[in-house]
Amino acid sequence: MKMIFIHDNRFWKKGDIYYSYGHFAYDLLWKRYLNYFDEIVVGGRIEETDDETINDKFSVSSGENVSFFGLPNLMSFSGLKEYKKAKKKLTEEMKKADCAVIRLPSNLGYLACKIAEKHNIKYMIEVVGCTWDDLWNYGSLLGRIYAPISFLIEKKCVRKAQNVLYVSRRFLQKRYPNKHFNMGCSDTNISPCSEEVFNKRIEKIRNMNDDTPIRIGLIASLNVGYKGHDTAMLALKNVLKSHKNVTLCFLGDGDKTKWEKMAKDLGVIDNIEFSGVLPGGDAVLKWIDNLDIFVMPSLQETLGRALIEAMSRGCPCIGGAGTAVPEQLPDDCVHRRKDYKELGDMICYMIENKKYTELCATENYHRSKKYSEEVLLERRTAFFKKVLSK
């Protein structure tokens, strides 16, 4: 059985190998679908590259029984000029497949939904984000103008679809309701860390004292303005008033110029570390193991993949309200949206109260187990079994 996957995701091709972000790695994503399909064809944005260091930045997305084809970037004006070309190519490829998996929000995904409806192609939608939060908080005027249009399109696509898989438990379901067959199932698979790793985390917390260097971490691209880098730096400024030995570490791709300037203006540049990019998997988990607190003050989050990874390592975590983050963390670890003072106070409390921080670490470790592959595979299999039996 052949599946076609459609999303605006960006892939880089070097020779015969395709690369992308960690959550599009062959072992993490495509192998999951290969439990239900014999062959996968992936449609997305593809760029040729000769970057010799690409292995250090991104994960390998290509692999056995997975092929790729390129489509225009419909998120740009130049790409929109190729809309007819994209529609023709996408229609040809979708007609060859037994089932389409369309990931939203994405402009290519919206087009794929139209094609599937018109040609009676079996399809399912994966709702992995809220286009309103994404575009409205992106920072550009054009993004805000397009936000309500994209929101209505995504809402219509999800409402009409016969099969919908949400990555959230409640958040996306409320914004993009569907009255047909739907299910909430995270697209993040967590391998529970060993007892040894968890015990090291607890020991690390118990050994904290006034002189212990504290590392706070945030994972997100530096190119987006809605992941809370600014809120975290403002919170850091307040934390440094009482705790001097604190470093805020940013892991993610993108241009750091804007954030460096802000850090200098705030007077916290000496306490900021830009950790660059790491391939998904063990490298990121080891980076998390070196943190003392993980923060996610994001304005747009529909699951919080990095948050769940941090929780799975027993890392104490704090996140922002108004997103899906409160689905993962207890109320006392959730700060008000954009409230850097409350975030700073929460960080200080964790630094100063080891017993509380240890309890947070333990609770996070156990909460994350519901995102283990064993648990999610059972839900996902039930979903695909019903979709493919129709």
Short description:
With 390 residues, this protein is an alpha/beta fold.
Layout of secondary structure:
Elements: E1 2-14, E2 17-20, H1 26-33, E3 39-48, H2 54-57, E4 59-60, E5 66-70, H3 77-80, H4 83-95, E6 99-104, H5 107-119, E7 123-127, H6 131-136, H7 141-160, E8 163-166, H8 171-175, E9 181-184, H9 195-206, E10 214-219, H10 229-239, E11 246-251, H11 257-266, E12 272-276, H12 282-289, E13 293-296, H13 305-312, E14 317-320, E15 334-335, H14 340-352, H15 354-367, H16 373-389
Parallel strand pairs: 1-3, 1-6, 3-5, 6-7, 7-8, 8-9, 10-11, 10-13, 11-12, 13-14, 14-15
Antiparallel strand pairs: 1-2, 2-4
Helix pairs in contact: 4-5, 5-7, 9-15, 10-11, 10-14, 13-15
Structure notes:
- The protein has 390 residues and is α/β, with parallel strands linked by helices.
- Helices cover 43% and strands 21% of the residues.
- It has 16 helices and 15 strands.
- Strands 1, 2, 3, 4, 5, 6, 7, 8 and 9 form a nine-stranded mixed sheet that branches.
- Helix 13 links the parallel strand 13 and strand 14.
- The longest helix has 20 residues.
- It is globular.
